[in-house]
Each structure stands twice: as C-alpha cells, then as structure tokens.
Design goal:
CATH architecture of the largest domain: 2-Layer Sandwich
Mean pLDDT: 90
Helix content: 40-55%
Bound molecules: adenosine-5'-diphosphate, magnesium ion
Number of strands: 17
Oligomer: single chain
Low-confidence stretches: 453-460
Shape: globular
Distance between the termini: 24 Å
C-alpha cells in the first residue's frame, strides 16, 4: 500500500479549491451582516426593548426577564429571516477555546403542537452540563451544573457552518455557586476595575471623562499547510506541532517569504476567511506573509477589549473551519516547526476615554502631555511591579518553545520606550531631590506629540526584540502566544494597571493634601515611579546573551518554563491583587493555577506519547527495513567475491543506523518509565515540573535528534512522515 505521505503529495495539485469573490461582496455591504448590532436591533425591537438593550450595551445595565423575552423575540425574528434554526450560548471555558451547545427553536406545546420559540429566559441564562469542562476542583463532580449568562456588551451573531445556521449568544460561564469557570468573566471584571481606576485619574485632567475602555488590537500569526500532508502526520493531528522533522535544505534563510506575494491557494483561503469574518463583524484590516515559509498574519482594526477578545476567539474558530473548505490546515501552535520561526499574537493595548482620547497618545498641550505621561509611566510601573504575573499570563506548554528561542521575545519581561521617551524619562528622573515648580510647565511643553510619531516611523527605533514595546500610541505586548486566548494576558494587564493607578491616585492626593499644586504633585509621583521601575526599561537587543546577564544583574526574573512561572498566580501578592480588584477570589485563583498546571501536564504527556508511538511504529520500522536492504546488499557483494572496500560505505551507514535505532529505542523506553514515575506524583505542581524537567527536557530533543538523523539516511521512499520541505513548500 502506498503510504499516506505519497498519496498526499500526489493529491496536492487537485486539492486546490477556487474561490470566487462575488462582486456584491464589498466589505461595506457584508460587514456585520450576521451580527445583531444595535442598528439591526432598532428594526426588530420595540422602542422599550431597544432602549433597554442599548442601556445594557452602553452602560452595563442589567436586563430584566420581561424585557429579555421582548429582546429574544426580536432576535428570533431576525435570525429566522436568515434561515437560523438553532441557538446556542457561546462561551469560552478554561480550555481557551469557544464552546457551544445548540438548542433548536423548535419545541412542543402541552397539547403536542409544534412551535418555534425563543424565550427571554433562554436568552438570558442557560445551564449547560458543565461537568466535562476544566474547573480546577471548583465544582465537585456531583455538582455538574454551571450556568451561562448573556453578555450584552458583545452582540449576538450567526455562525454559518455548511448549510447550518446558528444564533450564537456570547455569554459568561460560572459555577452554580458563582465562581467563574471561563475567561470572559474575569476579563469583564478587569475592564471594570481599569475603567474605574482610570476615570478617577483622568479626573485630574478632564472632569468630563466618565468612562475609560481598554482597547485591544491583536495580530494573529499562523501557518497554513495542505490538509492531506497534515493528516499523514500524527503529531500534527494530535498536538498541532511536528515533534520530528529534519530542517529542509532551504528554510527561511533566503528571507524570500516575508511580505512576498501570497501564494494563490492561500490567497483564496484568506479572501474566503475575510468574507466570513466581515459578516461576523471582525474588522480584519491587514494580511501578509510572515518570516517563515507557509507562515502568515492577519490583524483587525482595534476594538473595545471584550469585543476584540471575542473576535479573536471567533477568528481562530472560523480560520479552522474555512481552511477545511480549501483542503488546508491552519496551525495556530506557537512552534509547529523546529528551526523555523514560531507564531505569536501581538496584543496592542491602550485605553480610550468616552471623550475620545487615547490615553497613550502623546498630548498636544502641556496638560494633555502630563496626562499622557501619567498613563505611560503608570503602565511602566505596573509592568515592573507585576512582571512575574505578566510572564505567567503568557505561559503555556506551547509558548515555552517560543519564548527565548532567539526569534521571539525572551522570557524576561522588559519594556521598550524608544529613544525620545527614554530621554524624557531621564530628564524627569534627573531632577530627583529638586522640587518642581511653576517653571516646570516648560518641561511639559516638550513637543512630545510631534516628535514621537516621527521617531516611531523610523524602523531602527522599532525594537522587534522587546516583549512589551511602546509603539507611538499604544503598548504592544508581543510575548503572547499565537494559540492563546487574549483574555488571560489582558485580564492581568488591566488588573495590574488598575491597581497601579489606584495607588498613584492615593499618592498624588496625599501630596495635594500637604499643599502641593496638582501638577506638581503628579510630577513628583511620576518621578518616583520612574526611579522605582527603571530597571524594567531596556532598549537593546532582547535576543542577546548580554541581555540575559544584564537582566540578572538588575534582578529581573527570567523564568523559562511554564510550571515554575505559574507560581506567580499562587503567590500571596497575586491573591491580594486579584481580590482587592474584585477579579478572582482565592478559590478561583487557586483553581485556575491548578487548571493551568494540569493543562501543561496533559499537553506534554500527549506529545510524549505521540513521540513514542511515531518512533516505535513508523520511524523504527522504516529504519529496520532500510537496514535489511543494506544487509542484503552487503551480503550480495560479499557473495560476488568483492572485497570489503566495495561495501565499506554501506557498512558505515549500517552502523550509524544501528546507533540511532538503539538510541531511539532505549530513550523511548526510558521516557515511558519517567512518565510512570511522574504520574505517581500526587502534587500537581511537582508533576508538572517532572513533566517539564524529567520528560520533556531529558528525552524530547534526544529522541528527535536521532530520528531526524535517520531521516537523512533512509531511502526517501520508505520514510513515512511528510518532510519539512513538503509541509512548508508544497501547496
Ligand atoms: P504596526 O503595523 O506598526 O504594528 P498598526 O498601526 O498596524 O501598527 O497597529 C497594529 C495593531 O494595533 C492594529 O490591530 C491596530 O488596530 C492596533 N492599534 C492601533 N491603535 C490602537 C489602540 N489605541 N489601542 C489598541 N490597539 C491599537
Ligand atoms: Mg505589531
């Protein structure tokens, strides 16, 4: 039988699906087509229901049951016109993905009459059987119930899968006793905490500010490969990354892929994907090739954070679905291919006021300059004070492959501000001991707003190696992994910022009380914060060894692996922070810590198993077969009376193959033993560390090394796994 690998290679040409863009599909005509926006709601709701919905979307007001039914009716009418038959509460449990449970509008009345209905109660709250979602022990197994509750701030949408159409209601997911079991609940709480703290500080500068929204613009990197080839790789199917595979003769060294022309088949996929995204209201704006072959990126226009996070989760789902139509597979894993760049998800983060001001955009007047500096310096202070937590927020088994791998930001959290702002900070700092007075108005008149955009346009000033970089009017958190749900890191960032702003306000108020003029008090605290958090600022090459040494000297944490970095979530400092800001109680935080450790263990465990299985059932048999061919060849040459010189090189190869076979077999066996030992550990953290240090670190690279060597020695026609050159270059 021909191997899956060769069948897949043969089929590639015919796997391409053409995608015709219909002329009617102008973005502006299809944008939000499948979203129940307020504008659409206006057509389907009574005045009263519309008012109530608007109040809850804009002001976070609760919707009562009676009004809920009213809104549900309108939603159903809209959805039915679009051919929808089912609805689902759409939520994001702690798997990081989205979850759905579809219910039909169809039901029977008491007398058996079939009707279509969607009750307010079903819109507002549902009770999916939650027993199989991770809960970190929050929900004892006998209490399987959790409930989902409508989040009106993210609009309902219709998901089209093939011919099926489902009305999706974005919801939070909490346990019966009220603990959050999802990523959205804490995110919403963190947005509220930041809103309140930021509004309080904005009041120093503008009394008209009553609301501050966190904003997020993510950039999603991903790989696209042929589905047939992907299916022939058990590692890709089960883990999303290749655990074996020798580097191809040509990798990314020619740098001919970055920003190059998008390959036709992928282009068709992207346009199809974009069409689906526009209908769902995801405002995609850019698409391009990334550095690695077969790697791409898309990014939307930034949005209010809760919506942006929902849109990214939805995007990852839609990407995968649309890829199927094109016989392609999207890899969202942070490191699908060794030796080739991995994928990240830059999180561009800022805050904007209801008066239309971006709080991280440098101001145009002395007063707005001071407001910018306030939020800018508070961000630096927040990241400095909670850098362990920021690091933990991006930790995952898959992101461990990327952080610090000399292509992605290191595991050391530092901030890049650019030369101009570094100078500004230095100027303020150098006045320690001096007191500020009215004349400091002069300093605030620095033409920050004019100089920064110019400087930021200059690419030499755009440090690509920093995990947290100021890019002119926002911070770009670059260490987030491509497969992550943005809610995790954004919840942490919003919370540490809220906490820092609260302290800032308390300190400024204390100085004002002592008689300082407001501006002078603010400058004093800014100066203090610059001094206190200076060590987190770094403008140099984040990939260099010197930086690791320098960071150590500065006392900056450099935690390279997930199990240890997650300790930050279990620390008293984190408990206090999250509790004080009403994000997580102790129980919720401990549960999350436990869930993240468990997820790590499972991910590494699956990889270890896949590795063992592929090695034993695919690689070794191929190697043995080739060995036999060589043996036969040598025997034949010997029988023909040829001297040793004639089969010298075959013999050497034979020996070398034997060495690799033995190394693989013995290491796979030892790895299984190590797994048994780790599995016996009852403490989750200890088990995660064992999986990291005793299994992954000790065996993965060794086994792979020998397998990849074999790949280069064995008859190509016998090799069962699609090779890197095929995965990366054939489409
Ligand atoms: P670059 O390409 O230089 O990284 P862009 O201007 O293209 O920068 O922005 C990258 C991402 O940052 C986009 O998703 C964009 O919408 C987002 N972004 C821009 N301004 C903000 C902001 N104020 N808050 C959050 N995200 C923003
Ligand atoms: Mg970017």
């Amino acid at each position: 039988m021909e191997s899956l690998r060769f069948t897949a290679i043969k089929n590639i040409g015919s796997n391409s699906v053409s995608y015709e863009v219909k002329s009617s599909e102008k973005v502006t005509t299809i944008f939000n087509e499948n979203v129940f926006t307020l504008k659409t709601a206006r057509h389907y709701l009574t005045d009263e229901a519309y008012k109530s919905l608007t109040a809850s979307v804009k002001g976070g007001k609760k919707i009562d049951r009676a009004m809920g039914s009213n809104i549900a009716n309108g939603l159903k009418a809209w959805a039915e016109e679009k051919g929808v038959t089912h609805f689902t509460h759409w939520f994001q449990p702690l798997t990081g993905l989205s979850a759905e449970k579809h219910d039909s509008f169809f039901t029977l009345k008491g007398d058996g009459t079939p009707i279509q209905e969607f009750e307010g109660a079903a819109l507002i709250q549902q009770e999916p059987d939650a027993s199989s979602f991770p809960s970190g022990g929050l929900r004892a197994t006998f209490e399987a119930r959790g409930y989902t509750a409508w989040d009106p701030s993210s609009p309902a949408f219709i998901m089209e899968i093939g011919e099926g159409r489902t009305l999706c209601i974005p919801t939070i997911f909490v346990s019966y006793t009220g603990e959050s079991l999802d990523t959205k609940t804490p995110l919403l709480k963190a947005c509220v905490a930041l809103d309140k703290a930021a509004v309080d500080v904005c009041q120093y500068f503008d009394k008209n500010v009553t609301k501050v929204n966190a904003t997020l613009g993510w950039e999603q990197e991903y790989f696209v490969i042929d589905a047939g080839l992907a299916k022939a790789r058990p590692d890709l199917v089960l883990t999303g990354r290749t655990v074996f595979g020798h580097a191809p003769a040509k990798g990314q060294q020619l740098e001919d892929h970055y920003f190059g022309a998008i390959p036709e088949r992928v282009y068709a996929y992207m346009r199809d994907l974009e069409g689906e995204c526009y209908k769902l209201g995801i405002p995609l704006r850019t698409r391009h090739n990334e550095v690695a072959p077969a790697q791409f990126e898309c990014a939307p226009i930034f949005e209010e954070m809760n919506l942006a996070v929902d849109h990214n989760t939805l995007l990852m789902d839609v990407m995968t679905r649309v890829a199927k139509r094109h016989n392609l597979v999207v890899l969202l894993h942070e490191k699908p291919f060794a030796g080739i760049n991995g994928s990240g998800k830059h999180n561009n983060w800022s805050m904007s006021t209801d008066t239309g001001v971006n709080l991280l955009a440098p101001g145009k007047t002395p007063k707005t300059n001071l407001m910018f500096l306030t939020f800018f310096v508070n961000t630096i202070k927040a990241v400095h004070d909670y850098s362990e937590l920021i690091r933990a927020s991006i930790a995952s088994a898959s992101n461990d492959h990327r952080l610090g791998a000399n292509e992605a930001p290191p595991a050391i959290i530092s901030i890049f501000t650019g030369k101009f702002l570094t100078d500004v900070l230095n100027q303020i700092e150098s006045r320690v001991g001096d007191s500020f007075d009215e004349t400091d108005e002069a300093m605030l008149k620095l033409d920050i707003h004019k100089s920064i955009p110019e400087l930021m346009l200059d690419n030499t000033d755009r440090n690509r190696t920093s995990p947290f970089a100021f890019t002119g009017n926002k911070f770009e958190f670059r260490a987030v992994g491509s497969s992550a749900n943005c809610a995790g890191p954004m919840t942490v960032l919003n919370t540490v910022m809220a906490e820092t702003l609260k302290k800032f306000k308390a300190e400024v108020d204390a100085l004002i009380e002592k008689g300082d003029k407001k501006e002078v008090a603010i400058l004093h605290v800014i100066q203090k914060y610059i001094v206190e958090s200076k060590k987190v600022l770094f403008e140099g090459d984040g990939y260099s060894d010197e930086w690791e040494k320098e960071a150590e000297k500065r006392g900056l944490p450099n935690v390279k692996t997930t199990p240890v970095s997650l300790d930050a979530y279990a620390a008293d400092k984190a408990k206090k922070l999250f509790e004080d800001n009403n994000i997580y109680n102790h129980l919720e935080l401990e549960a999350r810590h436990e869930i993240m450790l468990e997820e790590y263990i499972k991910k590494v465990q699956i990889e270890a198993r896949v590795m063992g299985e592929i090695a034993s059932t695919q690689i070794l048999p191929a190697a043995l077969k080739f060995q036999n061919t060589l043996i036969e060849n040598i025997r034949g040459l010997k029988e023909a009376g040829l001297s040793e010189a004639a089969y010298h090189s075959q013999k050497k190869t034979l020996e070398s193959i034997s060495t690799h076979i033995n190394a693989i077999a013995s290491n796979v066996e030892a790895m299984i033993e190590a797994r048994k030992k780790a599995n016996d550990l009852s403490d989750t953290r200890a088990k995660a560390i064992a999986y990291c240090d005793e299994i992954k670190a000790k065996y993965f690279d060794v086994i792979r090394y020998h397998a990849d060597k074999l790949e280069l020695m064995i008859d190509d026609t016998l090799w069962p796994l699609p090779k890197y050159r095929e995965l990366l270059f054939l489409r």
